C-alpha cells in the first residue's frame, strides 16, 4: 500500500491508442488494486468506458466529489478526473485526430500542474502520439521536453529501466550519423551527474555505480576506430570521478552489459539510443519503464507507443504500465517530500 496520501496521477494517453485499454485491463487484472484511491486517472470517462466494454465488462460511470468520476469495473474501480468529453463514435481506434492531441495535452498539463503544486505524488504517462499533439498546436517533440519546459528544467536524462538493467542516454532521437557531432564532454558529464543524483534521491542508492560506455567498437582501440573516447568521454569520466562519483569507463558496449545485468553496476550511461535500448528491450520488452531523471517532479512512463495497430483489439499488454506505476510510487516514497496537504509526495 502507498505510504503517501497524495495521489499518483495516471494520464490516459492517446484516446485512439492502447492507453485507455491497458489502464482498464490492469485494473481488471487487479494489478492496480493495491493503490486504491491513491491512483487517479486523468482522462476521459467515455473513452475508458469504451475500453471496458471492449474487454467484456459493463462499466458504470458515477459522479464523485471534486469534479471526479468513479468508473466501476465489476469488483474494481478507477478514480477518473474527466478532462475531455470525446464522443467514442467520433474517436475511431488507430486514427490520428487533432482533437485527440488536444485531449492528451490537457491530461499532461493538468497532471504536471498538480505535481508542481504538491497535490500529487507523481505522474505516470500512457503513450501519446507525437503527430497528434503537433496537429493540436504543441511544438514539443514529446512528454519529456514539454515537462522539462513546464518545470523550468534544463537538463533531463531519459532512463529506461527494469529490474535487471537501467540505461541512461546522452543523446536520444538522432540519426546515427549525427551522434558523434552531438556528443560533448559537457553533455556526457551532465548525464552522469543527473543520473547519479537521481539514483540517490529517487532510488535510495547512496553511491550509485555508473558504467560509461564507449562510442566506438572496442572503446576505440587506442584511436584505431575513432578518437571520441579519449577526446570526449575520458575527460567527462575524470571530472565525474574528481567530484566523488563512482564512475568507470569508457567500457566497450559489446561486453559491459553482461556485467551490468549481473549487478556490478546500478546504471549504464549510453552514448546513443539503440546502444542502450537494444539490451534493455531484450530483457524488459514487456515491463520496461521510461523515467525522466532530473525533473523536480516524479514522472515515469510506459516504454512503448500508442500501438495503433493493436488499439481496439483487446490484446495490448499492460505490464509496462503496471511497472511504471510501481516505480513512480517507489520514487515518490524515496523523495520523502511534503505536499501542501501534509502528505508525503515526490516534489
Automatic annotation (TrEMBL):
Q: Where in the cell is it found?
A: Cytoplasm
Note the subunit structure.
Homodimer.
GO cellular component terms, alphabetically, are: cytoplasm
Q: Which family does it belong to?
A: Belongs to the PdxA family.
GO molecular function per UniProt: 4-hydroxythreonine-4-phosphate dehydrogenase activity; metal ion binding; NAD binding
**Catalysis: reaction(s):** 4-(phosphooxy)-L-threonine + NAD(+) = 3-amino-2-oxopropyl phosphate + CO2 + NADH
Q: What is this protein called?
A: 4-hydroxythreonine-4-phosphate dehydrogenase
Could you tell me the gene encoding this protein? pdxA
Q: In which pathway does it act?
A: Cofactor biosynthesis; pyridoxine 5'-phosphate biosynthesis; pyridoxine 5'-phosphate from D-erythrose 4-phosphate: step 4/5
* Cited Pfam families: PdxA
Annotated substrate binding lies at 143-144, 281, 290, 299
The protein's organism comes out as Desulfuromonas thiophila
Question: What does the further note read?
Answer: The active site is located at the dimer interface.
